[in-house]
Amino acid sequence: MFRNQYDTDVTTWSPAGRLFQVEYAMEAVKQGSAAIGLRSKTHVVLACVNKANSELSSHQKKIFKVDDHIGVAIAGLTADGRVLSRYMRSECINYNYTYESPLPVGRLVVQLADKAQVCTQRSWKRPYGVGLLVAGLDESGAHLYYNCPSGNYFEYQAFAIGSRSQAAKTYLERKFNNFTASSREDLIKDALIAARESLQGEKLTSSVCTIAVVGVGEPFHIL
Amino acid sequence: MTKQHANWSPYDNNGGSCVAIAGSDYCVIAADTRMSTGYNILTRDYSKISHLAEKCVMASSGFQADVKALQKVLSARHLTYQHQHNKQMSCPAMAQLLSNTLYYKRFFPYYSFNVLGGLDSEGKGCVFTYDAVGSYERVGYSSQGSGSTLIMPFLDNQLKSPSPLLLPAQDAVTPLSEAEAVDLVKTVFASATERDIYTGDKVEIVILNAGGIHREFMDLRKD
């Protein structure tokens, strides 16, 4: 295919105006195990399907607390996700040190997106191979953002990423109109059902699925 | 031509006294709430005590702007520690961190005279006493600040354990009960207030034990 001529490094455009290395990075996200996020007016819930390499190994950590008011779920290269979480934690601590108030979620995702963009325009770097669902609360309310390796970010009412996420997305598309007014318990239930959809028949147990919540008066924590 | 000298100083002394006493299963940390400059009082209601970690409390007298900056740095470093190690810092660990932080500014010091108090990993009370550049030692009790010259000899009289040269090695923590130690602290501050102009208004007493943290105030002479 013609792709192969223009996909060697990230600083080469294809004649069709695409950066294939960036698109390959997005593929890495699609191959990772599913992560789901939904938000109401007062709470945001993240759910993850945890893959384990074998029965002997531990499950991968895919949900990270960034600050009391922000948490993130990742899909794709979890090592990249870990590094980006460390960056986000550091940014939150520095902002709090300077302004003695929590970093607004919208600002954090922009910084994250700009960081990802840098890797799409340097010949000695590669794009981050991880998609992040950033859940957070600030003065303007509850937020759920999706940051992709391309450097783009979008705000969502509900979203799912990773393998077999389409099944979860279909379920969320049916239900999302009710989410704004949902209670905390209903939101968690919907997250679990969406996770079950993406498991496609596998049993939903606490070892396979992780849930985290952040809400008004409730700091981010993994349940 | 004689050497030019600065006509201003980056430092000021806001006065005040701090005390900490370690018990077998508790620790009492106390500081007065008066903030002064020169012969004037800036406020009668300023806390010199900072709750750095779950089982670790610091009281600092000296230049309160440097104290505040120091508290913020330690607080931010503690957050990073929690992210990396998934647990709170122990008091001895915080003691070392404080020492390193102070020495980091060896050539433009924090004008901050600190006592660190808390529970060690065995649940026993511990007190660490510092100079402005980070030299520290674990002791059974200590005082710092403008009233320390009045307070320390009195604490020595009441609490000093036998010589460290004695064998077998004696523990430095006091055999006093928690209530007796708090009473001693109140006595000590009332006495220091009489003769030290920078100590007075109120004393803030923090008690750390297995049950958690408890804070109380006692009025002192306001002249």
From TrEMBL, chain A:
Pfam hit, one: Proteasome
Biological process per Gene Ontology, one example term: ubiquitin-dependent protein catabolic process
Species this chain originates from: Medicago truncatula (Barrel medic)
Record GO cellular component, one term: nucleus
Recorded coiled-coil stretches: none
Assembly description: Component of the 20S core complex of the 26S proteasome. The 26S proteasome is composed of a core protease (CP), known as the 20S proteasome, capped at one or both ends by the 19S regulatory particle (RP/PA700). The 20S proteasome core is composed of 28 subunits that are arranged in four stacked rings, resulting in a barrel-shaped structure. The two end rings are each formed by seven alpha subunits, and the two central rings are each formed by seven beta subunits. The catalytic chamber with the active sites is on the inside of the barrel.
Keywords: Cytoplasm, Nucleus, Proteasome
Family: Belongs to the peptidase T1A family.
Function summary: The proteasome is a multicatalytic proteinase complex which is characterized by its ability to cleave peptides with Arg, Phe, Tyr, Leu, and Glu adjacent to the leaving group at neutral or slightly basic pH.
Predominant place of localization: cytoplasm
Protein's name according to its UniProt entry: Proteasome subunit alpha type
Automatic annotation (TrEMBL), chain B:
CDD domains (UniProt xref): proteasome_beta_type_1
Matches recorded under Gene3D superfamilies: Glutamine Phosphoribosylpyrophosphate, subunit 1, domain 1
One Pfam family recorded for the sequence: Proteasome
Entry's Gene Ontology cellular component terms: cytosol; nucleus; proteasome core complex, beta-subunit complex
Source domain of life: Eukaryota
A single GO molecular function term of this UniProt record: hydrolase activity
Keywords: Cytoplasm, Hydrolase, Nucleus, Proteasome
Family, per entry: Belongs to the peptidase T1B family.
Function: Component of the proteasome, a multicatalytic proteinase complex which is characterized by its ability to cleave peptides with Arg, Phe, Tyr, Leu, and Glu adjacent to the leaving group at neutral or slightly basic pH. The proteasome has an ATP-dependent proteolytic activity.
Record's protein name: Proteasome subunit beta
Source organism per UniProt: Medicago truncatula
